[in-house]
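User:
Can I borrow your eye for a moment on a structure tokenisation matter? Would you put together a sequence-and-structure record for a protein of your own picking? Please set it down just below, with no commentary around it:
AI:
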Amino acid sequence: MTTSPFERLSASVLDLIGNTPLVELGRITAGLDGRIFAKVEFFNPGYSKKDRIALRIIEEAEASGALQPGATIVELTSGNTGTGMAIVCAAKGYHFVAVMSRGNSSERARMMNALGAEVVLVDQCPESLPGQVSGADLARVEEAARGIVRERGAFRADQFQLAGNSRAHYAQTAPEIMRQSGGIDAFCDFIGSGGSFAGCARYFKEVDPAIQCYVVEPAGAAAFAGEDVTRPNHRIQGGGYAMAELPLLDRELVDGCLQVSDADASAMARRLAREEGLFAGFSAGANVAAALKLLNSTHRGERVAILLSDSGLKYLSTDLW
């Protein structure tokens, strides 16, 4: 049994990462045959699931010798990974450079800056709109991040390539869900880097191969599912970059793909706040909407686990709130 970090004196903020609550969404599922279990990842100190991967990636790099004391760390981010990296770097004494599209909500850049990060904002493509970060916008951020790594001889904490991303969720998030829930029948997750889906799905299937795992993407940008990309500038921040292949995500772990519209993701995020008292972001709303699709179809009467990936506080400047 894992002891809660709140039951003991913690040596640093790093001890507060992980062991987040699991909450049943009983009001949203009222009248339905089935249950949704939501992992409240905004209880992490950086208010998102990405704190877990930031700590894991940095500690694995330290252990391998790839990261030396006093080094500069660079990573592209939609804001959550950057916030997690900023927290870990502050606690460990590294300088962190966060590279982010101007299309992401301004709260994220301000929070990273407050935590001591150097924030580099990259202009969006001419056809993009604020709040609608496309794969093309992300490519610009990737190019800028690579340039900074070369110029400064920095360590690249690459969340799309480094397996520490998925290992964090395999080692922590999924085992926590299984302990807290007593068992689940299905799991669905909105994908960005694909790390949380990959890590959780791999663990769940090792424990019980019957657990069905579903990738969630934005409607009109479901490239992983093989759909034509007609809406690359969707509003669900933090993922859905219309990438057909993600290095960390093994397709053998995927039992199905679900698509959620901007309107449904927003509506469900608002329902989470008003009906359950859980103030979360766009992707959390997408995960709830996807889980409801499962309960209304192939998983009627079953238990579906999801992640509430981040806090609604990171979207106060957007039309979500």
Summary: Strands lie at 22-24, 35-40, 72-76, 95-101, 118-122, 155-156, 186-190, 212-218, 256-260, 303-308. The first strand starts at residue 22 and ends at 24. The first helix runs from residue 50 to 64.
